[in-house]
Amino acid sequence: MRRTLGLIVLIAAVGGASASLAQDLPQQQQQQQRDNYLQNDGIRQAIPPEKFIPAQAYAKGVEALKAKRYKQAVKTLARVTDVAPEQPAAWRGLGAAYAGEQRWDASRRAYKRALYLMPDDVISHAGLGVALQALNDPNAQKQADWLKAKAEACNDACPEAPLLKVLETSGPFAPSAD
């Protein structure tokens, strides 16, 4: 139950962050990445180059994620991470999509990549914690501790404060009712 609630919170949080990729990828950079992608990868040419725009594909992936079409979200967001591997939002969304499919090891890897690119991302720490919890990995507690420390340091003053409060009270790291 708590894992499901945590997944719902994370999907909502990923959806709220969906505009970030579009802002991060100027048109010229998108074209350059598209060109590099097609030169280096002859396998994935199912999407014609003129139709694949990472920011638009990311938005479609998030839309699929919100609609609980996890397989489609994984497929779309994996393509985005192939073309724009430096975008933590795409990796974070991919982690949530894998979690929706209960592919916990893949989810863990995607969230770790997101955190490599953006170490203080609350959503990615929470997602990694959910994946580690599902894998019965003792490192899940480190993510819970990081989120708790972030919430205490933030104390309603940071933009992530509302999300941290939700995670603290009803998310996967909330104290047990035992």
The parts where pLDDT drops under 50 for at least 5 residues are 38-45
Oligomer: single chain
Q: Helix tally?
A: 10
N- to C-terminal separation? 14 Å
Brief write-up:
The chain is mostly helical and 178 residues long.
Topology (SSEs and partners):
Blueprint: H1 2-16, H2 19-24, H3 27-40, H4 54-66, H5 70-83, H6 88-100, H7 104-117, H8 122-134, H9 140-154, H10 161-170
What does this structure look like?
The protein is an all-alpha fold and 178 residues long. It has one domain: Tetratricopeptide repeat domain (Serine Threonine Protein Phosphatase 5, Tetratricopeptide repeat). It is built from 10 helices and no strands. The chain has helices spanning 2-16, 19-24, 27-40, 54-66, 70-83, 88-100, 104-117, 122-134, 140-154, 161-170. Helix 1 runs antiparallel to helix 6, helix 6 (88-100) packs parallel to helix 8 (122-134) and helix 7 (104-117) runs antiparallel to helix 8 (122-134). The longest helix has 15 residues, at 2-16. The radius of gyration is 16 Å and the shape is globular.
